[in-house]
Amino acid sequence: MDHDKIVREILNYIYESNPTAEESRPIPLDESLYELGILDSYAVIEIVSFIETTWSIQILDSEITPEKFGGVNKMAKLTLEKIAAKTSS
To answer: What pTM was estimated for this model as a whole?
Structure first.
């Protein structure tokens, strides 16, 4: 699994599940989607659930911050870290 593949899957999910995202094409990868108004708090919960289910990982509430989860690249980085931790244990 690589960073770019995770980014593509997250973007596909966002575009398919969120009509506001379609209007914002292309979505910036390094900006907070919540702060841009692309995702609301409910959509953040949905994307967390999507990531957890897709990659069989758990994202802690304390990790859902602008610093760790704000943009698509940050979501992908956290996902990769979780996958690596899961496979090394």
So the answer is: 0.93
